[in-house]
Amino acid sequence: MKMLINVAETVVADGLRGLAAAHPELTVDVESRVVVRRDAPLEGRVGLVSGGGSGHEPLHAGFVGPGMLSAACPGEVFTSPVPDQMVRAAAAVDSGAGVLFIVKNYTGDVLNFDMAAELAEDEGIQVAKVLVNDDVAVTDSLYTAGRRGTGATLFVEKLAGAAAEEGRPLEQVQAIARQVNENTRSFGVALSAVTTPAKGSPTFDLPAGELELGIGIHGEPGRERRAMMTSGEIADFAVDAVLEDLQPSNPVLVLVNGMGGTPLLELYGFNAEVQRVLSQRRVAVARTLVGNYVTSLDMAGASVTLCQVDEELLRLWDAPVSTPGLRWGM
Amino acid sequence: MLDAEFFCRWLTLAASWVERDADRLTALDSPIGDADHGSNLLRGFRAVIATLDEQHPDTPGAVLAVAGRRLVSTVGGASGPLYGTLLRRTGKALGDAVEVDRDELAEALRTGVDAVAGLGGATPGDKTMLDALVPAATALRTSFAAAREAAEQGALATTPMLARKGRASYVGERSIGHQDPGATSSALLVAALAETAGASGEEDTSGE
């Protein structure tokens, strides 16, 4: 597989150097692998720190900036960052008002953020955590590592970020982050496997004419494989899988998210089908976002995330944000 | 008796075997994981060897504690905290002794393995590194060779298992038929321990 890289070993560092060159409003520590908004720490404001394996860009470093994350810690490709990065990020953004760790529910991320929280508290930083686990494809949570964190991460980071920007205290920012996670569900499909730089070939074998239903964002195969379906059929399947779990009484924010290898034209076409299904199921849509936000390198496919919002969450969604990956109102 | 030098030789051999088998570990991690186990461990063990060369810890416990901390700060993923905890807690259990015997190591390893189970929440049979480590810790009371055999058998026995922890659990039934990469790398570490003991003529050190 041809890739636009130098060597696999420097993919993450090369990407960070490029991020730094494009975004002088961010402080990018390529050596320590920490990305911080340049004006941090902000007096009296809670710091938001997230992180995870690389390969999901713009998540998380692309969501650092006013109105969203204070700092992000990119790990190796599809590998959780290490506690040292998270402690460094927490120290860089803590103004004394505390730091919220936003953690996607994967064994590695959870273990490393737990260790980091202990170390940061030893340094006198008040740390709260929120676990993001929105993926309805993982049904048997008792016998797995539990639901994965996927598209909901964007909503948690945006809405909690807006709350932190308003100067809300740590416990309130954490409560909002939890509320968002509890009201958000996702389901993803893959039309192709993913190729990591380290391996150089697809991580699983997906024959032409088939698709994977219920995939994660790390190239791990899904729960089920079927003969290829149309965009409309996929929308029916994905939206119904989400609605089986989340029965919204309030309007929803919709994220139609590309996995990295599917053209925007197809994503918008898929969104039309998603909106059709939502309308048929009498679900009111407040806002819709279409694009590649929580990706899986070059994987073709998409995920649907629905986030049920009340007026307060909708107001936080509409609040100004200025990051490399998400920007409006300022 | 086993001194700090012995533990450094063990980890150095383990690092060279991780280097040799990195592609195989990554290949095992592809169908049921995310295809990076070999490259992640390789990065960690290279850092461990560099740090040991620099710091020269002078007790077995200190060697394992230094190595464990280094793994935590370089590997990432689940393997970093889990292998880091295994070595740190085993090292801590060995205390400040300048030399330890095999029985003391077996007891300390049991403490380390229990800490891994506590951290990851897995039990034997869940298709994880514990399936190699738990039998190895028990068999180490008998001999280094028995520990190696038990770990390797334990890793092979993960093939028909259904994964219940870690990333392989997401593929459900389709995890069956694949050998667990974590159990495989655990068996490799235990095999390197037995190999180092054999080369040092330590096979008979028992605290009778």
TrEMBL record, chain B:
Protein name from the UniProt record: Dihydroxyacetone kinase subunit L
Organism (species): Streptomyces sulfonofaciens
Keyword terms, alphabetized: Kinase, Transferase
Gene Ontology process terms (BP): glycerol catabolic process
Pfam families (UniProt xref): Dak2
NCBIfam families, A to Z: dha_L_ycgS
GO CC term, one of those recorded: cytosol
Gene3D superfamilies named in the record: 1.25.40.340
Residue ranges occupied by any DhaL domain in the UniProt entry: 5-195
Molecular function as annotated in GO: glycerone kinase activity
Keyword Cell membrane carried by entry: no
InterPro entries: DhaK_L_YcgS, DhaL_dom, DhaL_dom_sf, Dihydroxyacetone_Kinase
